[in-house]
Amino acid sequence: MADSYDVVIVGGAVIGSAVACYLTSDPDFDGRVLVVERDPSYATASTGLSASGIRTQFSNEINVKISQYGLEVIRDFAQAVAVDGPGPDLHFHEGGYLYLANNETAERILRENHAVQTACGADVVLWDQEALSRAFPHLNVADIRLAAYGRSGEGWFDNTGLMHGFRAKARAQGAEYLADEVVDLVAHAGRVTGVVLKSGRTISAGTVVNASGARAAKVAGMAGLDLPIEPRKRTVFVFDCAQSPQGTATVNAGRLPLMIDPTGVYCRPEGRYFLTGAPPLEDPAVDWDDFDPRHDEFEEIIWPALAERSPAFEAIKPIRHWAGHYDYNTLDHNLIVGRHPDCPNFICANGFSGHGLQQAPATGRAVAELIVHGGYRTLDLSELGVERLLENRPFLEKAII
To answer: Is Oxidoreductase found in the keyword set (predicted)?
Structure first.
């Protein structure tokens, strides 16, 4: 292995591997790429611990378009990343997302978001209480003023399949992967010139890409740069249901969507079971190695909300749980992507705030375009650049889960 690369990517999960894949597939790029991953098992990577969803129901246009491109990639993924045969089948379940609003403010936000989504061509409809009850008769809708439902283009898929597909394709195209940890960056005259590894080696780099997930602020700090990103813990539960409502819907062949209750609790089918989670009542930053599930969230937050929403969820039993991290952007809950003005060869791909998996394809393509062509050629992500952080100018995403 050489000691000098044109591009060093810090983090080899879905974001880092997407960047490596798009970069090495560009015919105008002939450089050398190294991906440094501290844990090649990916046991605690946000990629593998996520709820694995993709949706177009966002509050701003660019996030809608990012997801629409992600959907294109997911639908054709097996062929797009084929290496000596088809890549992984991501088993995309097009179940849709269902947002419920129970007060005037929430209703207004759904209507505003819907206008943005439909202007982008997203297949999202608004339902009143009666229409909602007809579509999903198991729900208690007495308090619901409005619902937004994604009829197509939304659902859930194989999270690790997406990562491993990008990773395998990137390696086949020449990217190198190294199991090690970046513990420092070498900087000179406003540029990063290399990465220092835990093993003791120093690797020279023409460009460094920060794709380190919840550790993004730590990596940026090695270059004297600040990012408003914190690791925030999210616990996910899988539960069995004595009287499952799956199959009772009058839309989408009886399949239930991922429902977001007004309490913030979400729930979706997971095979014969259901997967659920909720924003915690208190949401502090946690240690990078803190993955202890918050067991009490199921009894105190999730079960009461689900039982109130549907009689079918009164008798449920948790059978599995885990905790993962959001790389939470405290400024505006939105992706931070692009060159850092104070260090132009340091590129950020961070702060997804729970949306990284679905936004990985567009982010990987965008970062590759910056490196190879000096600017965006497909989807312009300039509004999501680092400049807004330095100017304290939030580009807020309201529809986070």
So the answer is: yes
Element (H or E) spanning 372, and its range?
Answer: helix 356-373
Domain of 114 in residue numbering reads as 97-152+231-326
Q: Are residues 8 and 78 in the same domain?
A: yes
CA distance 50 to 61: 24
Same domain flag for 43 and 131: no
Q: How far apart are CA 276 and CA 279, in angstroms?
A: 11
CA distances from 302 to 59, 181, 381, 382 (A): 25, 37, 36, 38
Cα–Cα distance between 295 and 321 in angstroms, integer? 8
User: Both 176 and 197 in a single domain?
Assistant: yes
Query: In terms of domains, do 337 and 261 share one?
Result: no
Give CA separation, 119 vs 64, 98, 159, 335, 399, in Å: 10, 19, 29, 21, 17
- Four-residue CA torsion sign, 114, 385, 11, 169: positive
Give pLDDT tens digits for 329-359: 999 999 999 999 999 999 999 999 999 999 9
What is the total count of domains within the chain? 2
User: Is residue 249, in this structure, part of any structural domain at all?
Assistant: yes
Task: Please give the radius of gyration of the chain, using alpha carbons only, rounded to the nearest integer.
Answer: 21
Residue 215: partners with Cβ closer than 8 Å, 6 or more residues away: 11, 231, 288
182 and 72 part of one domain: yes
The verdict on residue 377 lying in a domain is yes
Q: What is the tens place of the pLDDT at every residue in 82-95?
A: 999 999 999 999 99
Whole-structure pTM value: 0.97
CA 107 to chain CA mean position, Å = 25
Please list the residues that pair with 16 across neighbouring strands.
none
User: Residues, the chain, total?
Assistant: 401
Shared domain check, 303 and 184: no
SS3 at position 275: strand
β pairing state of 33-37 and 176-179: parallel
